[in-house]
Write a structure and sequence with these properties.
Thr-specific_kinase-like; Rossmann fold; single chain
Length: 402
């Protein structure tokens, strides 16, 4: 019987070219800045994360060496399908708080002294930020040290301290799991002793991955071993519902009341639209919109409506300068009334989106059933789907429909 674990999606993202700086903010207001060619600044020691909702923490570690362009493309195009794998999960009737982290490893553009490893983004519930990080990835040849990047993910992230939380690392790559000075066996033992399951995804032949110890690593950390074709193109089928979904998505965006400094408000709004465009460029906007209509796309601490639904008193504590312009001159009572009205409108739009998205899924299923070609090879999204359902159930989550 596998022991319970929390699901932390650590996205291990490899970014190789250019002088880039990545700043990561998460729920505990700790910022880590990682600059190419320089050592990572020391972060404050992280206390275990605690939240109001059941914890699902996912850490994805992506090999971004030269041969992995296809893997990164799959991660970009399938992010919102992957998120939807968790959308039905509930514990004691409560939707979980999904946080995702991204690491890259194996990229020669990263400092050798740091093991060609970069934490791209700390565990965060800001899924737009995760998408932004994935679309910034670049590949470059290097050495892939699986044991080392697993250890870094364990140490650097503020994994949930909740009992029976779901915490998981998903690591994908194509070179032997044994490379580097950090023993993969030690790293995988460290993970499961911390309640973190390790799922391994070998990009290539199944048996070659077994020989390269990818299966052994998963077995040691009570995870799943899977193999995929990282160069398999993700096929997107146009559906008659897509136009309606795109229109409803635009309406949904209008209901967001971003707060914080002026720069923060602008950044949140612009990034939401930018990630819509990124998803659209790969044929995935309908999947993203379906995710936004669900309960996992939440912006508590950034958007007044989501924050209001979590704790309406919290928005009364905000400074006027941190509010959207249209709310600054309102009394506290008027402010709550305004946010409540927009919350109701958002719920109506989400309900329409959910209905049309289900119709789209039915259409997709029928179209795929007509296809007589040889079944497509497994992709990154397929690997997630294979692993998470059983693992969530073992951590005490229900997977009934929303």
């Amino acid at each position: 019987m596998k022991r319970p674990f929390n699901l932390f999606l650590v996205l291990a993202v490899m970014i190789g070219f250019g002088q880039q700086t990545t700043s990561i903010n998460h729920a505990q207001d700790v910022t880590i800045t990682i600059e190419k060619g320089k050592k990572e600044s020391k972060a404050k020691s992280k206390a275990p994360f605690t939240g109001k909702r059941p914890a699902v923490d996912v850490a994805i570690l992506l090999d971004t060496s030269n041969s992995m362009d296809g893997l990164i493309d799959q991660a970009k195009s399938q992010l919102w399908n992957i998120v939807q794998e968790f959308a039905k999960a509930k514990k004691n009737g409560r939707t979980p708080e999904l946080r995702v982290s991204v690491f890259e490893y194996g990229n020669s553009g990263l400092p050798a002294r740091e093991g060609y490893i970069r934490q791209v983004i700390q565990l965060t519930d800001d899924l737009d930020k995760v998408s932004e990080a994935l679309f910034a990835l670049r590949t470059g040849g290097g050495d892939e040290y699986c044991g080392a990047v697993i250890n870094e993910a364990i140490k650097r992230l503020d994994w949930s301290g909740q009992a029976n939380a779901y915490k998981a690392i998903f690591i994908a790559g194509n070179e032997p799991f044994t490379q580097g000075s950090v023993d993969y066996k030690s790293a995988c033992r460290n993970a499961i002793e911390s309640g973190i399951v390790v799922n391994t995804i070998h990009c290539g032949d199944y048996q070659r991955g077994v020989q390269g110890k990818w299966k052994d690593g998963a077995d040691m950390a009570e995870g799943e071993y899977m193999n995929i074709n990282q160069d398999e193109k993700v096929v997107h089928i146009q559906c008659p519902q897509d136009k309606i979904i795109i229109e409803l998505n635009s309406q949904l965006n209008e209901t967001y009341l971003w707060y914080g400094s002026k720069n923060e408000r602008t950044r949140y709004a612009e990034n939401q639209v930018a990630q819509d465009l990124n998803a659209s460029s790969l044929g995935g906007l309908s999947s993203r919109a379906a995710t936004k209509a669900g309960s996992l796309y939440r912006n508590v601490g950034r958007d007044l409506v989501d924050t209001f639904e979590e704790d309406e008193e919290a928005i009364l504590q905000l400074k006027a300068d941190d509010l959207p312009e249209e709310l600054r001159k309102l009394t506290p009572t008027e402010r709550l009334k305004k946010v409540a009205a927009i919350s109701k409108l958002r719920a109506e739009i989400k309900a329409k989106l959910a209905t049309v998205s289900k119709e789209r899924q039915a259409y997709l299923a029928a179209e795929r059933a007509k296809m007589t070609e040889t079944p497509a090879a497994a992709t990154l999204g397929d690997a997630f789907a294979e692993a998470v359902e059983e693992q969530l159930v073992e951590s005490g989550f229900d997977l009934s429909d929303e």
